[in-house]
Backbone:
């Protein structure tokens, strides 16, 4: 048996001896009373009043002593349980080789000090042991552990109780279970604010259709004797925006759902909803329209600046091959007609914002202005701007800035909400959460949006 368990074993033996001694005393006293009763009974008979009196007293005495025995056994049993719990709390010796060696050296050193003889440790080993930062912790823990065995746990001093909680791993220690909070610290992901800016429609079918007025009527001046020859009639187009399926099938064991102190199902729902939101928001900018919404940045550029071309979006050069310029941003702003410009918002990557904040106008004033009112966006050339993680950073030929009346230019179509099918049968013992969302999106007004392209 290892030396570090000797004290525990000695205490267990002491408790057993104490219990045995007490039980023996009670048993001998009870046996003596029984012998006395037997002698009285044999000499006087069972009908004698004296015999009955002795019988009553003996019965009471037996009951009293039996109660005392029961209390003694119960007390000893509880103490044994406490000791057993203390022993079980010890971690197996030798889980970490370095700490195991420290324990062995410590016990050997203690024996050497007690006996005054060197039992195997050299002077250098003693010095290294005494300077080891774990040595003091080990001594404190050994003292506290001994106190715990001799004294009730609640009566152990604060310092000793602390030592018990932070005991040396290899010496056993107490596996102190930390408080497990039901709060989860979440990693945050950047997203795009398109859903907040654009128009949103909820439908009950698989597609949204609308008519688009993309043309204008003709007219001309008519003279007194000259009738008009203009017969131009405006045309309309039909726009169809289908909804696409965004889906996932995460799995969680039924046991984890049952036993976790955290609402795992609610946590998973929030994670999936967040991922859905970020995925669809990115597609509103870069989606190709095949199995997903079509994004703002996937349309061809107008061939002639300042003229309307159906199913194309005007791209305005930044004035530099690799970065933004003040003049380029001014050109972008005033490429939009007034009706939409009044409700326009800039949208760009946060790294682009960093660079744009350094730009100045001809008077040396920064063109970027921080938001004055709490909750209000900052201003760029008098217009609000928002940050996106999907918009490209400034580089050659990058579409790095969008200016739009998003309500007029982009439509998001939702097919109701997120649908979750809870399936505990298909993948036992896992519960599968088949989660789907149907969403579509597309540009509905090509005149209400402009794009800054990084180019000279």
Residues:
């Amino acid at each position: 048996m290892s030396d570090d368990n000797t004290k525990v074993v000695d205490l267990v033996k002491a408790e057993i001896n104490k219990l045995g001694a007490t039980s023996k005393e009670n048993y001998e006293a009870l046996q003596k009373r029984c012998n006395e009763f037997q002698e009285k009974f044999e000499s006087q008979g069972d009908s004698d009043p004296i015999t009955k009196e002795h019988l009553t007293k003996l019965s009471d005495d037996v009951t009293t002593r039996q109660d005392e025995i029961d209390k003694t056994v119960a007390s000893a049993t509880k103490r044994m349980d406490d000791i057993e719990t203390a022993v079980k709390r010890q971690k197996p010796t030798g889980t970490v080789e370095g700490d195991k060696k420290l324990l062995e050296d410590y016990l050997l050193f203690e024996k050497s000090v007690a006996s005054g003889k060197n039992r195997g440790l050299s002077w250098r080993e003693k010095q290294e042991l005494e300077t080891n930062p774990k040595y003091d912790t080990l001594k404190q823990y050994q003292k506290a552990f001994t106190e715990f065995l001799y004294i009730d746990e609640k009566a152990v001093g604060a310092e000793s109780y602390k030592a018990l909680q932070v005991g040396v791993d290899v010496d056993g220690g107490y596996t102190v279970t930390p408080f497990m909070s039901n709060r989860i610290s979440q990693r945050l992901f950047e997203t795009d604010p398109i859903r907040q800016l654009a128009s949103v429609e909820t439908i009950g079918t698989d597609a949204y259709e609308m008519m688009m007025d993309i043309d204008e009527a003709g007219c001309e001046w008519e003279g007194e004797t000259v009738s008009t020859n203009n017969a131009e009639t405006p045309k309309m187009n039909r726009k169809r925006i289908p909804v696409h399926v965004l889906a996932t099938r995460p799995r969680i064991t039924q046991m984890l759902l049952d036993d976790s102190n955290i609402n795992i199902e609610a946590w998973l729902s929030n994670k999936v909803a967040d991922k859905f939101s970020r995925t669809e928001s990115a597609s509103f900018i870069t989606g190709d329209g095949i199995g997903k919404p079509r994004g703002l940045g996937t349309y061809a550029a107008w061939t002639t600046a300042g003229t309307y071309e159906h199913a194309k979006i005007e791209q305005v050069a930044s004035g530099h091959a690799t970065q933004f310029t003040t003049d380029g941003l001014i050109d972008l702003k005033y490429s939009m007609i007034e009706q939409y410009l009044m409700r326009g918002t800039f949208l760009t990557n946060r790294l682009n914002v960093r660079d744009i904040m350094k730009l100045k106008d001809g008077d040396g004033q920064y063109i970027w202005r921080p938001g004055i009112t709490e909750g209000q966006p900052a201003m760029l050339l008098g217009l609000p701007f928002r940050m996106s993680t999907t918009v490209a950073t400034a580089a050659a030929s990058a579409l790095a800035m969008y200016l739009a009346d998003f309500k007029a230019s982009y439509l998001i179509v939702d097919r109701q909400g997120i649908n979750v099918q809870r399936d505990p049968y298909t993948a036992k013992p896992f519960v599968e959460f088949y989660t789907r969302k149907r969403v579509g999106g597309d540009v509905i007004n090509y005149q209400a949006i402009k794009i800054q392209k990084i180019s000279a």
The longest strand covers residues 430-443. Residues 95-178 form one domain. The first helix runs from residue 6 to 44. The chain has a mean pLDDT of 76.
